[in-house]
Amino acid sequence: MEYLFEKGTGKHLLLLHGTGGDETSLVDIARFLDDKSTVLSFRGMIQEQGMNRFFKRNGLNQFDYESLEEESDKLLAEITRVSEEQGIALEDWVIVGYSNGANIAAHFILERETKLNKGIFFHPMSLGVVNKKVDLSEKQFWLSFGAGDPIVEKSVFDELENNLKTQGAEVTVELTQTGHQLTMPELTAAKKWLDEI
Ligand code: MLT
User: Coiled-coil intervals in this record (predicted)?
Assistant: First the structure.
């Protein structure tokens, strides 16, 4: 997979972009969250009309579940491989995902045994898969939702929050009055959460 790695002295931020982004898309966000962070950022391998994604879909919110499982395994394998190569423990990463990137991250957190245990998920949603009951106690996630989001319904956001909590995770939610886009108030709230964990 294509990825970008920049060594810093602060937090370890693992970046997963939204549909149409690439490995550079969230770097400024990461620098805002922690200007000294070490950054590892992947490019989704699925192409949808020239846009990068982390798994296939057959239309808006019509997910291809076979692709979701396959790409989750490939992405986790790459995260593990690059982390080993760089001498960084999986426990040290804070995942920072936006939209499609947040969705694949939340999926593999819920459905795979992994040492990754912290995440900031901007505008994520439940993908409707609840197969495994991985123990998420000791894991912490921060999630944002926009009241005017045309892509993420409140019900599927709530479903994700509930799934994470049911499996034992500590979840912090930031509600915004805007849509699917990132806003300064939510970035500031995410930074505060990151500073405190
Ligand atoms: C997804 O496909 O993961 C969601 O619809 C969000 C997005 O469009 O990226």
Answer: none
